Amino acid sequence: MSEILNADHEYRAHADQHASLRLWLRLLSCTTRVEDKIRQKLRESFDITLPRFDLMAQLERHPDGLSMGELSRRMMVTGGNITTIVDQLEKEKLVLRQVGVNDRRSFTVKLTKAGREAFADMAFAHEEWVADIFSGLSNNQQSHLYTLLGAMKKNLQKQEEMT
Amino acid sequence: MSEILNADHEYRAHADQHASLRLWLRLLSCTTRVEDKIRQKLRESFDITLPRFDLMAQLERHPDGLSMGELSRRMMVTGGNITTIVDQLEKEKLVLRQVGVNDRRSFTVKLTKAGREAFADMAFAHEEWVADIFSGLSNNQQSHLYTLLGAMKKNLQKQEEMT
Predict the structure, then answer these.
(1) Contact A137/B131, CB-based, under 8 Å?
(2) Of B129, B137, B155, which is closest to residue B40 (Cα–Cα)?
(3) CA angle B141-B144-B145, nearest 5°?
(4) Which CATH number fits domain A48-162: 1.10.10.10, 3.40.190.10, 1.10.3720.10, 3.30.70.240?
(5) pTM reported for the whole predicted model
(6) CB-based contact (8 Å) between A57 and chain B?
(7) Which of A19, A37, A146 is the closest to B23 by Cβ?
(8) What would the pLDDT profile of A105-142 be if each residue is shown by its tens digit?
């Protein structure tokens, strides 16, 4: 009897594991599809890359500027070389590097006024695209998804604190 | 009165838009965190990159082999140069290039027996990590999340067919 129970538990454990994997692959595939769509829209409408948009978005949220290390940690998408993007944006006068007061070897990156304006246009369009992409889900479904992802995020944080 | 209603609708539309953006940023952030975790585990345990794992996973699902174009379309993560990864895997005898029967300029990439065995070990560990990462959510929450993401995926497909 205990052997049967055991076997059943193992089967169950394996099925749960498999369900988690399916969930993860679906989560990854949904995210990738939306990312690809936004990537394409940014290219078509503003001729810019997603990492560049992401970098400007991080700077917009931090008006006092961010160090290169902080920028790198805060980026939400992968694939862009941060130094290269900052160099390009600086050349276009959309960001500036500010040397540290206490440590002249360190510097922070900030949006310029022109950078903030350019980003505002893109952010406005971006918000519309995202609303459009999610428009197939009802408000109720969206809010439910938001709550479940919130629980997931909380658990991820807890796990990270434990390691 | 109609003006008030109008204003209210606009407010509502804007609030919905904003809710979609929040949802998207949370979806992106959850996915990025899990991806980072898996990336780190793959490096620590098998000394390989996530794009390399992803590429082998795609080949494992297609035993008849995939062309470079198909591989590129099926990859679920970004950031790896596919030609470079295939070259490395070929050098390590984990994949082979097979010249096309009808078109000698075309070729497909396949896992070798050693490649399938190496991937099986990684896939087993990967499934355990994923189960562990999602273990903070109940089976019920996971299945609900899976269903909502399914609705989202369906809508994304519909939208893609319409464009």
Answers:
(1) no
(2) B129
(3) 85
(4) 1.10.10.10
(5) 0.85
(6) no
(7) A146
(8) 788 999 999 999 999 999 999 999 999 999 999 999 99
